[in-house]
Amino acid sequence: MPRNLVIMVLDSCRFDSFQRAHTPNLDRIGGAEKRWSYASWTAPSHYTFFMGLVPHRAPQHVYASEVYKEDFGAWSQRLNIPDLNFGSFIPQLSLAKMLKGIGYKTIGRVSMPVLNSYTLVSKYFDDYQLMTNHFDFQGIVDSVEFASDQPTFCFFNIGETHYPYMLEGDDLPHISGLHGVAKALAAGDDAGGKITKGNDRTFDDLMKDDTMTRLHDQQVRCVETVDRIVEELFEKAPEDTYFIVMADHGDCFGEGGYFGHGPVMHEKVFEVPFLEGMRP
Question: What average pLDDT score do residues 1-23 get?
Answer without folding.
Answer: 97
